[in-house]
Specification:
With 327 residues, the protein is an alpha/beta fold. The strands form three sheets. The protein has a six-stranded parallel sheet with strand order 3-2-1-4-5-6, with helices on both faces. Strands 9-10-11 form a three-stranded antiparallel sheet. Helix 1 links the parallel strand 1 and strand 2. The chain starts with a strand and ends with a helix. Bound molecules: nicotinamide-adenine-dinucleotide and (2S)-2-hydroxybutanedioic acid. One of its GO terms (molecular function) is L-malate dehydrogenase (NAD+) activity. Keywords: NAD, Oxidoreductase, Tricarboxylic acid cycle. This is Malate dehydrogenase.
Length: 327
């Protein structure tokens, strides 16, 4: 039995993400939770002739049923950006939403793999971790910030420049998920780019979200590419945990997930940063191993240093929010 609960399932990401998950033969129950419209979305998806049962749940009184015994909880619930906003501007609304969903997960699905999409990811992942700690069910190997869209973008944008097949070009992207905290490791992928191209494409990857926010002109942020990326990540977690597949993905985690995790990052950023997106080997308990970030160029080293201070602030904001909340 692999029950997957999507929280925010009626939204711009939630609907196409649920559609992509409905295509998986490994998922037996797709549970759709939102504060609006999930009965309709569930009825619609339930006509697709794949294995999973689909159920729709609306509003806090149905959250327990939605989430109970889920193996995976994917959270794209909350508000998206409008032009001129940063992801951190979403904290005021999304922090409470994520905290409450994490509380339900800690009570009713404490072993679930938690895949957090809601922004600001740099802060919402620490929120989920702190809630799980308060309920004494914390396992850092099972809580993931989904940064896969940065990796998908990096592969697209770099292959546009060097002409490789984008789906085969893997560009590791580490750090966090906002602006300068997004750290693409282009030096590990190609030597075909000039320094000017490296700087331009690095900036494009770091601010790719803004490109979509601007183009949507007030109608939200990336939804379809995020659904693609979110499904890729959730299915990777499922394939590794329930089908024993050998999978490596970059994801934003608490580095306590592996005893070597903190060291791998400390040497590169020159200090302690408790959460970081790193390449991880996934397995039956989530993070099996944090893999080395590998060598970085002097230009990338400067980017790491810039990222560290912003990340630390974002992490502290999430952690302190739960410390100040009554659960
Ligand atoms: P949206 O407004 O289209 O959908 C959000 C959904 O969340 C809505 O259906 C809404 O009803 C629901 N919701 C609100 N409060 C809820 C609650 N308490 N419980 C359950 N559901 C609730 O927004 P979207 O475009 O789907 O974006 C969702 C989030 O994902 C935003 O925070 C956005 O910034 C983030 N995002 C993250 C990434 C990433 O790479 N991690 C990429 C794109 C967007
Ligand atoms: C993205 O990277 O597209 C998302 O984080 C949404 C945003 O606000 O940019």
């Amino acid at each position: 039995m692999v029950k997957v609960c999507v929280c925010g399932a009626a939204g711009g990401i939630g609907q196409p993400l649920s559609l992509l998950l409905k295509q998986s033969e490994r998922i037996t129950h797709l549970s759709l939770y939102d504060i609006v419209n999930t009965p309709g979305v569930a009825a619609d998806l339930s006509h697709i002739n794949t294995k999973s049962k689909v159920t729709g749940h609306v509003g806090p009184e149905q959250l327990k049923d939605a989430i109970q015994d889920s193996a995976v909880v994917v959270i794209p619930a909350g508000v998206p950006r409008k032009p001129g906003m940063t992801r951190d501007d979403l904290f005021k609304i999304n922090a409470g939403i994520v905290r409450d969903l994490a509380t339900a997960a800690a009570k009713y699905a404490p072993k679930a793999f938690m895949c957090i999409i809601s922004n600001p990811v740099n802060s919402t992942v620490p929120i989920v971790a702190e809630v799980f700690k308060q309920h004494n069910v914390y396992d850092p190997r099972r809580i993931f910030g989904v940064t896969t869209l940065d990796i998908v973008r990096a592969s697209t944008f770099v292959s546009e420049l060097i002409g490789d097949e984008p789906s085969k070009l893997q560009v590791p992207v580490v750090g966090g998920h906002s602006g300068v905290t997004i750290l693409p490791l282009l030096s590990q992928v190609t030597n075909k780019l000039t320094q000017d191209q490296i700087e331009k494409v690095t900036h494009r990857i770091q601010f790719g979200g803004d490109e979509v926010v601007k183009a949507k002109n007030g109608a939200g942020s990336a939804t379809l590419s995020m659904a693609f990326a979110g499904a890729r990540f959730a299915l990777a977690v499922i394939d590794a945990a329930f089908a024993g597949k050998d999978i490596v993905e970059c994801t934003y985690i608490n580095l306590e997930a592996d005893q070597n995790g903190a060291k791998a990052v400390k040497d590169l950023v020159g200090g302690d940063v408790p959460y970081f997106s790193v390449p991880v080997k996934l397995g039956k308990n989530g993070v099996e191993r944090v893999l080395p970030i590998g060598s970085i160029s002097p230009y990338e080293k400067q980017l790491f240093t810039k990222a560290a201070s912003e990340l630390k602030g974002n992490i502290a904001k999430g952690t302190n929010f739960v410390a100040g909340s009554k659960l």
